[in-house]
Give the backbone structure.
Amino acid sequence: MSAQTLPAKLPDGSLQNLVRSSLQGPAGEVCYVARQPILDLHSRVHGYELLCWNGRQQADGPDRNGPDRNGPDKELAARALLGNAVVFGVSELTSGLPAFVQCTADSLTEEWVLGLPPELTVVELDEEIEVTENVLASCRALKQLGFRLAVDNFCGRTESAPLVVLADYVKVEIARAGAGERKRLLDRLTHLQARAIAIRVETPEDFKHVREEGFELFEGYYFCRPEPVKNAKMPANRLVHLEILEVLQQDPVDLNRLSQLVMCDASLTYGLLRLVNSPVCALRQEVSSIHTALILLGEATARRMAMLAIASDFNGEQPQELLRMAFERGRFCELAAGLMGLAPSEQYLIGMVSMFPAMLRISMKDLVKTLPLREEARNALLGTGNREGVLLDLLICQDCRDWNKYDAILAANGLRFDHLMWRLSEAITWAKNALQNAA
């Protein structure tokens, strides 16, 4: 998802416990914190931008370029974001990678950011803030403490030059600056330390253009939308995977047949054994055979581990962030299934499979034709709005930061925000561990 939404909470010891009670905004709104990955030239995650919405104003929403983006609502969102980052722990939210945290001039000079770890925090300021001596002094002091600085919405304004000189990153929104303008902005950075981040990079074509222009870092969901390969055929080992998916849909699972199928693919066998012998399974003994492993795991965990191994194999050379999103989606849907009276195993499959088109570079429409799924599960993956697709729809809303639709889905299905977020925080932690053990 590339953006994961979490509620702001009061601290009581761990991320899982933090989600149990919501922190409300000044008018009683739930405050959301989300994250979006920033990738490098090699499709590795460089860091995450933390985002906030307080029920009235999105810190990065459709009006981010409007005249009031540094107004009182922006200030409330910035303060909520800083407070929530302190509550959750930046390392928890970003898996130890840099966190880009949006600030206003007031929240900067009032030193709200000092509650964050300097080595992981990139303080992000809009280029159009008033660059006063107080702002510059605060930036210099933060840099001396080990914080990094980013300038957002970089347009090359003369007034912001002293801020850009201090910056470690500048962010250029490609929808606001054409190719010629982007070249001019990059030229301005030639003799400065700042690295250029292209933001709102939403398609492979966008990525191709800005990469060729000289950008080093990229924020957006282009990596989730690779161009489908024309007339692509499913390789032989993928056909085995589809047979495995069919077995996983049976109740109960035929573990003998499942182990036979897994052993037909060497890389899948290796991947499953790695996962089974890793802490994510918490088995008390190491196992060396697939059949023994599946028996020891039990049916529910065996389903999950087999799906993890398939997803890892499907991802191939694609960005690892896709695999993380698949793990997280599958686990969240499984954990939240009981809230709606849905089958956990099918929900796990729906969440995981939702990322397969990006991994395999085929359309969802073509993919579901080959999958041995119930019609309701196929419709959920196609986004028809049925009950089986509600949890996946919530995750997609998070990726798009469509908070209004998110709240509408909650209301329509009688779901509670805090209950969902507890499960999402569990899924984030589980996916992080699974990804480390699948590497």
In short: Residues 236-438 form a domain with the Hypothetical protein af1432 fold (CATH 1.10.3210.10).
